[in-house]
Amino acid sequence: MTKPSTSDFLAAADAAYSGHPASTSGLSVLTGPRGGPVEATKAADGFHGVALETASGQVIIAFEGTALSDLQTRPTFVQAQLAGDAAIAKGQDAAAYADALRFANRAVAAAEAQGIAPSDIFVDGHSSGGAQAEYVAVKTGLAGDTFGAPGIPAADMNTGVRSHLTNFVDYGDPVGNYSDNPDRIGNLLMGDGIERYGRPTYVGQASDARSLAAADRLYGTSPVGSAAAAGLVVQGIVNHHQIGAYAADLGVTLPGGNEAGGSQLTAADIRSAVSAITGTSGPATGGVGNVLTGLGLDAPVGSSSIESLLGAGAHPHGHFG
């Protein structure tokens, strides 16, 4: 089996985000039996998927991760994504997982109807989109790539299906390392029982893992230590989790540049996201929930110490999860 290039997988994962047209990446949206694009959105679950065809005639089924920078323009959709992120953080299935499997089955049928072999159909996604790709891969046996995927619940694993995924994980990415086994950030976890489907392929600088280890050690030592731990976690998200960071790690330039199409991630964006995640279904207990709540991420803009830790200005790469 010859997989598409890493460049194609990154371009497809990027194209899955709204506003990132596949046409600029050398990919084209697969056409369905009725002539329309093979693409689906379910706003209530924060789900969006698209089937893309490479220049060599292979198909990449790509799933959108959490588009945090779109919180103001697509509030219902992004809030549903954040609810899914909360479920993932607690080791539960996001609602979008079932949507992803239904869409993947539809995309596979559309591809096969055009004579594309199952061995030329792949799954793909960044962050929570990568988690959806993992879930679909478990259920279908499809191969593919993920970038910064947090993992899926252990209960979803099918030990009888061998993983054919390449899971790229930046050493300093707290999301991609959420499913480490053995855990390197056990004190920061909101829930256990989450696993990566397949082995990790680490990218970036190995020394960046020290920040996550430091955050894990600092959490719970004192209010100042917990605040510093939270700062390191958020810094890891900003610097190592965004899809543009993965592109840079792998020597790839995304079609719109590695600034994720000009999206800007601010400290306020992160505060809104974390408040939504830790506040879903009641207050979080322990782990990242307490670390970031202790930092004051649910406080009004300007009052949280996150600005003093990271600076109040905008940061590149607006795709959070």
Automatic annotation (TrEMBL):
Q: Which domain of life is it from?
A: Bacteria
What is the protein's name according to its record?
DUF2974 domain-containing protein
List the source organism: Lichenibacterium ramalinae
